[in-house]
Amino acid sequence: MESSSIKNYILDSAKNARQSALALSCMSTEEKNRALQAMIIHLNSRRTEIQRENKIDLENGRINGLSAAMIDRLTLNDARIDAMIQSLKELILLKDPVGTCLSEWTRPNGMTIKKIRVPIGVIGIIYESRPNVTVDAASLCLKTGNATILRGGKESIHSNRALAKILQDALIEAELPKNAIQLISTTDRQAVGELLQLNEYIDLIIPRGGESLIRRVARESTIPVIKHYKGVCHLYADKELNPKQAVSVILNSKVQRPGVCNALETLLVHESLKETFLKEICIKLIESGVEIRGDDATCRVCPQAISATEDDWFAEYLDMIIAVKTVKNVKDAIAHIEKYGSRHSDGILTTNQTTANIFLQAVDSAVVYHNVSTRFTDGGQFGMGAEIGVSTDKLHARGPMGLEELTSYKYIVTGNGQIRE
Amino acid sequence: MESSSIKNYILDSAKNARQSALALSCMSTEEKNRALQAMIIHLNSRRTEIQRENKIDLENGRINGLSAAMIDRLTLNDARIDAMIQSLKELILLKDPVGTCLSEWTRPNGMTIKKIRVPIGVIGIIYESRPNVTVDAASLCLKTGNATILRGGKESIHSNRALAKILQDALIEAELPKNAIQLISTTDRQAVGELLQLNEYIDLIIPRGGESLIRRVARESTIPVIKHYKGVCHLYADKELNPKQAVSVILNSKVQRPGVCNALETLLVHESLKETFLKEICIKLIESGVEIRGDDATCRVCPQAISATEDDWFAEYLDMIIAVKTVKNVKDAIAHIEKYGSRHSDGILTTNQTTANIFLQAVDSAVVYHNVSTRFTDGGQFGMGAEIGVSTDKLHARGPMGLEELTSYKYIVTGNGQIRE
Questions:
Q1: Taking a contact as any Cβ pair under 8 Å apart, which residues of chain A between 14 and 33 contact chain B?
Q2: Are B125 and B133 in contact (CB under 8 A)?
Q3: Which of A366, B28, B222, B313 is most buried per CB count within 10 Å?
Q4: Does an H or E element contain B147, and which?
Q5: Chain A 157-186, residues with CB within 8 Å of chain B CB atoms
Q6: Burial class (CB in 10 A: 0-12, 13-18, 19+), A405
Q7: What CATH class does A3-227+398-414 carry?
Q8: Nearest one of B187, B205, B297, B247 to B17, comparing CA atoms
Q9: pTM for the whole thing?
């Protein structure tokens, strides 16, 4: 496509999305659920079509030398399609937050003010290789009355086109506006730049992918963005702790699934525990296959540890590696997390409630933990039923984002002729 | 200042603000109120100092040919200083939202999740000529535990420096971090550009001023921005209405204070009322000194009306001018507001509840009114006690923003060793 065509194509998509969003905002939960039900039927009956297109992406991926991990994330086998269908089934059962009255009051002049949950409007989702995001993100937005413009990675373009076609067919069958879900069908990078300028039609951008993608989106967007760059999660093992519990929480946070944003990256240990707990946890970590990058004190008690550099304190390894540092006290731990952390998920392991309270108040992260694994920062684990992402922003949504976080509100003021004096 | 000095100066200010914000987030309501009390005392006793600096701005303003209205907004007479003091007194009495538990639940594994209100962190306020914003914005942010970086207009730089000095002296006296309130003391435009890139230290930007300032900020900022560009507010007079009430609400919305964002700009009238209500309201508007820009039907029944152009439907006059148009029905009115409106404040005048409900649901504005003047879109009128601004964004805060809208939340998860399966 030529540059001017891309510009017009994106503009038209955004205008269509805005029109669809207005129609969606007046639709009942039943109507929206009917479309989700139609999606289930189409996904289930059109597996051949999905997998035929997915095969093209996989072949292109092999030719272009994608890593085995990337190829795996790209693959839409039957189990992955089943998982999408299962998520849609669960989504149908979740409560629709739209229309809820958040608060209501009457002013002395007799007018009544109601604060009502409404959809956000048009949401742009910019994501990388995993094609299941197409279905997951679009369906969560639809349930909450939002129209979506999806922009996936070029690696999964054929899969995404097939899935988007299915979603639109389901919308048509359920008599919902077809343009409530649109996929940007060009892989040209210019398309993203154009999209990010359309704050007149698009209300929110959610980027999902690597840090460089998210930084580009945040830098270029004139539309509000909800995001997290990375998760450099910490646990601080205080001098007063239950060692058995602490070992279990640290190992779970680090090794249960090291490649995700809520996995532990840096362990801080009170210096009084050098010869006891620190020694013990290092052995346990190494036994679990974790490489240790330690400060001097750690390297002294754990000969297998590699000496940490300044970069290690900033690192999001997403791997079986951990940075370990001794600190003087809880304030020192808080200062380290403030300097090197990413304000995602950080916790304290202590039996002293006063120390815990100091930490929980002062650490400025989306989720702070006391004697709990950092791996719980997740919409499902929080009981939200579904998750569109995790935010480390302070505005609108912070931490795991479920259906309520995909809504805004409006004020409805009713009266009988009130005028301002 | 040289370009590199400005860059370093802004970076240092932002880092200092971040440190102060962390300290503020742990402070009690009493400590914050003590600082507000000290501000009252300093403002009251240092009027000579404020007015001496203000006089320099006023003289420069006259030399630079500022309009009488601009000069008026710039003037810090005793009444204006009294008004600042009064706002501070009221602010001390308002409830501090920080620390409120928004919700709390326990998961099946026994861990407890609490959602707690916390300050947003560092807030940048970018504003134009009125120097009272310096005190109003900084004090509202302080009450909610936020640090502020203030960037006022060059016209009010001497006044702002004097006020910021007073606010910092009050912070020092109350033993709060001095850098919790900082004024950018250079008027170089580069400073704003630098500020808007510091998303690592600044959590929110609130621009207050004309549309072009706000558009520049939204375009350049990598930090979330809460704003409204303008208020093109509508009232729709439905075929079924109480004419006396409707006249009163329309006149109040238009003439009570035409220069503000919640004043009425366009009146839509059901076409069946051409010869009756439309004629009557046009006479009343003209009697009140309002100029009418009408569609053909309006010009036919009101000879004094000027024929409206397409631009009139988009216009935010902020003046004694109104655009008047006839529409076929409520859907036509909704479509007009969607096309030309600014999603700020729009209302319907009708005795038919069904018609009202269609309008209130479909119109996508921050505040929608039924038989009430649009002039109530205001934190004070909503009963919030104080207002930092009005937002037409969908994210975080929509409509009037009071103290609660200056907070974020964090999740505190406590348990006894919960790990993820």
A1: 22, 25-26
A2: yes
A3: A366
A4: strand B147-151
A5: none
A6: buried
A7: alpha beta
A8: B205
A9: 0.94
Q: Which of residues 218-257 of B touch A (CB under 8 A)?
A: 218-219, 222, 224-226, 242, 245, 248-249, 252-253, 256
Region of residue A256 (left: phi > 0; alpha: psi -120 to 50; beta: else): alpha
Q: How high is the ipTM of this complex?
A: 0.95
Q: Which amino acid is at B48?
A: T
- Measured between alpha carbons, how far is A226 from A397 in angstroms, rounded to an integer? 8
Beta bridge partners of B149: B124, B182
- Contacting residues for B388 by C-beta, under 8 A, at least 6 apart: B136, B137, B140, B141, B206, B379, B401, B402, B405, B406
Q: Which residues of A108-132 are buried (b: 16+ CB within 10 A; e: fewer)?
A: eeebebbbbbbbbbbbbbbbbbbbb
Q: How many CB atoms lie within 10 A of CB A354?
A: 10
Cite the residue boundaries of each domain of chain B with CATH code 3.40.605.10: 3-227+398-414
Q: State whether A22 and B338 contact (CB < 8 Å).
A: yes
Judge contact between A416 and A107, C-beta under 8 A.
no
- β-pair partners for A150: A125, A183
Q: Is B372 on the interface with A (CB under 8 A)?
A: yes
**HSE value, Cβ hemisphere, 13 Å, CA-based, for A18:** 17
DSSP A371: E
In a 10 Å sphere around its CB, with 0-12 CB exposed, 13-18 middle and 19+ buried, how is residue B259 labelled?
exposed
Both tokens of A294, joined, read: 């330690």
Nearest chain B residue to A227 by CA: give it: B224
Strand partners, B126: B151, B207
CA distances from B154 to B184, B236, B321 (A): 11, 41, 31
Question: Digits of tens for pLDDT over chain A (421 positions)?
Answer: 788 999 999 999 999 999 999 999 999 999 999 999 999 999 999 999 999 999 999 999 999 999 998 999 999 999 999 999 999 999 999 999 999 999 999 999 999 999 999 999 999 999 987 899 999 999 999 999 999 999 999 999 999 999 999 999 999 999 999 999 999 999 999 999 999 999 999 999 999 988 899 999 988 999 999 998 899 999 999 999 999 999 999 999 999 999 999 999 999 999 999 999 999 999 999 999 999 999 999 999 999 999 999 999 999 999 999 999 999 999 999 999 999 999 999 999 999 999 999 999 999 999 999 999 999 999 999 999 889 999 999 999 999 999 999 999 999 999 999 999 9
In whole angstroms, what is the distance from residue A98 CA to residue B130 CA?
39
- CATH 3.40.309.10 domain locations along chain A: 233-376
> B362 and chain A: CB distance < 8 Å anywhere?
yes
Return the CATH architecture of domain A233-376.
3-Layer(aba) Sandwich (3.40)
On chain B, the residues whose CB falls within 8 A of the CB of A105 are 383
Measured between CA atoms, how close is A213 to chain B, in angstroms?
14
Residue with tokens 């200062």: A335
Coil/strand/helix, residue B74:
helix
DSSP string computed for A32-90: HHHHHHHHHHHHHHTHHHHHHHHHHHHHHHHHTT--HHHHHHH---HHHHHHHHHHHHH
Contact B135, B39 (CB under 8 A): yes
- Tell me the C-alpha distance between A341 and A368, whole Å: 12
Inter-chain contact B368–A412, Cβ cutoff 8 Å?
A: yes
